[in-house]
Structures are given as C-alpha cells and as structure tokens.
Amino acid sequence: MSGYSESTVWLIIAALGLGTYLVRLSFLGILGNRDLPEWVLRHLRYTPVAILPALITPLVLWPQATGGTLDAPRLSAALVALGVGVWRKNAIAAVFAGMATLYAVGYFLG
Amino acid sequence: MRMTASNSAYLSGIIGGLPFLLVLLPFGLLFGVLGTEAGLPISQVMGFSFLVIAGSAQFTALQLMTENAPVLVVLASALAVNLRMAMYSASITPHLGAAPLWQRAMLSYMLVDQTYAMAMQTYEAQPERSLKWKVAYFFGLATPICPLWYGATYAGAVLGATIPPEFALDFAVPITFLALVAPALRTLAHIAAAMTSVMMAVVLNWMPYNLWLIFAGVAAMVVGAEVERRMTAARGKLS
C-alpha cells in the first residue's frame, strides 16, 4: 500500500462509498418507479461474473508471493475452490476447501 | 394496533436476517485481516466497511490497491462490481418506492446482497403486505446484517496484526473471489461471461495501470448479455 498517501486512501474510500451509495439510491431514491430497458438489465446481471474472474486470473497464474511464477499449491487451491463453489453453491465451503488445499499441497511439497 | 403490526414485521425481518450471519462473519473477518495485512490502519479498514458496505467491491479495491493501481482504476473496477445494485434498486422500488424520502435514503444504504435477496423473496411471496410492513421488515433484515459486517471487520482488523506470514494469506483474496463467483455460474451465459473475462485478462495483460481489468469486464458483460439474448431467442423458437 506504499503507493498511496493516507489522504489518497481516504479519498478512495469516500469516493467508493459515495458512488456505491448513489448506485443503491438510483431508482429507490432518485429515478423512482420506472422500468429499466431489458437490454440494460441484461448487462447489469453479468457485472460481477464479468469483473471478478478477470481480477482473479493473474493472481492465480502469476502470484506475487512466488515472484510471478505459477505454483502448484496456489493453482490447485484455486481449482478446488472453484470446483467446490460450483458443486455446492456455497461460498464458505469453497473458501475452506480452497485454503485447506493450499496448506495441504504446500505442506506435502515442502 | 398499527405499532404492533410494524413491530412484528420488524421482528420477522430480524429472524429472516439471522442465517446470513454465518456467511458474513467469515468474509467480514477476512476483509479486516487482509486490510491490516495490506498495511491499512484500522480506521481505514473500518471506513471501507462503514461507507462502502459491499464485500466484493471492498476486496476488489483492496486487491488493486496492493497492486498500486491508479486511483481511477481502483474506483472504476470496484464500482463496476457494484453496478448490479442498480438492478436491485430498480426491482425493489415497486415495493418500497412509496416510502418517505428519509426512509428510502436509509433503506438505500442498507441495500446489500443479503437484505435485497431476502426482502424480494418475502415481498414476492406475500404481495398483500402494506408498505409499512415492508419497510419495517427491511429494517429488521438489516438490523443483524449491517452491524455484523462492521463487527466482523473490526475483529478481523485487530486479529490481522497477529497472524504470521506462513499462512499464505496473500492467496485468501483470489480464493474468496473464486468462492463468490463459482456459485453464480448458474447458466451458460454466466459461464460464457466468466470465461471471456479470464481470456481477456490473459490476452490484455500487457496493458498498463490495470486497464485490462476494465476492458475485460466490459467485454465479458457484453458476451454474457448476448449469450442470454440468443438463448432466450432460441427458446422462443422452440416453444
């Protein structure tokens, strides 16, 4: 976090808080009861699955902790978390399975 | 009598919100731990949970900040993750839109994934409920959910300083994101969007300032929406 001054971090927090609040307030507080066009709703439905995988990919393929090279514990932990999450539809189970795999594979590979 | 009715609505809201504590506690703790590990003081970690009060966006901002991404990229990416809440706001307005402005201003702050999902489910199952009942129910839902998010974050932030680096917590963020995304891969359109997002992240990785994230996100959103449109059209033809 060395790249930001304390006030810059506060700026990020405040701007993100305000922006998020305005998104939440958008229809309920400002625009009122009106239907969003179907094409807009269709795009909004995919925002989390569009951004998060792109954010995850380099963290899994080129982790900073290993100096940017692919490593077995992290890759297998990611695959297990993904698999358990898809299979059980349960985020907590996926976190535990993923972290357990990370520690187990890390331990066996020394 | 009216007082009693709102009281019982408020109480059913609280009961409806309680099961979510199990989900929010670990994620709140984790945000607190990772925030302090990343070098943020407790005040700023808490600032995130109070002002943003949205797990995925907080983790997104935190991750990009540890990568020293430009401020605008941090904001654009984390806000993009929260754009789904415009959809929440629009779809809950038929139920709560007639409440006084000060109530809607408060309800908007508390419009998080869990309160939204639970409120919509209840409103749709019980359409005969009055506006007063629906508002009281929503406040009830938020009563355990929001304070727990702050409390869990605080506990995590205090705890974070004591966790040794051997625990490889650097990887808890990607694991958390995977855990949040995986259950959402319900349809072909969701899977297509996620795969586009992954491929674009690899292909565009040469871009500076984490800009690839924005391009990958937009491309994946368009692909998801387009696949859904075609699937719906195909289903229309079949029936």
Please give the share of residues in helix of chain A: over 70%
Largest interface: A-B, 79 and 97 residues
The quaternary structure here is heterodimer
What is the total number of structural domains of chain B? 2
CA-based shape of chain A: extended
Number of separate helices of chain B: 12
Query: H/E element string of chain B?
Result: HHHHHHHHHHHH
Helix count of chain A? Answer: 5
Helix content of chain B: over 70%
Q: Which structural class do the helices and strands of chain B define?
A: mainly alpha
Cα gyration radius of chain A (Å):
19 Å
What is the CA–CA distance across the termini of chain B?
51 Å
Quick tags:
heterodimer; A: 110 residues; mainly alpha; B: 239 residues; 2 domains; 12 helices
Short characterization:
The complex is a heterodimer of chains A (110) and B (239). Chain A has 110 residues and is an all-alpha fold.
Give a description of the structure.
The complex is a heterodimer of chains A (110) and B (239). The longest helix of chain A is centred in the N-terminal third of the chain and has 26 residues, at 6-31. Chain A is 75% helix and 0% strand. In chain A, helix 4 (72-88) packs antiparallel against helix 5. Chain A has a domain at 53-108. The two termini of chain A are 30 Å apart. Chain A is built from five helices and no strands. Chain A is mainly α and 110 residues long. Chain B has two domains: 2-166, no CATH class; 185-239. Chain B has helices at 2-17, 21-37, 42-52, 55-66, 71-82, 84-96, 101-109, 113-125, 131-160, 172-181, 188-203, 211-238. Chain B starts with a helix and ends with a helix. The mean pLDDT of chain B is 90. At the A-B interface, helix 1, helix 2, helix 3, helix 4 and helix 5 of A face helix 2, helix 3, helix 4, helix 5 and helix 6 of B.
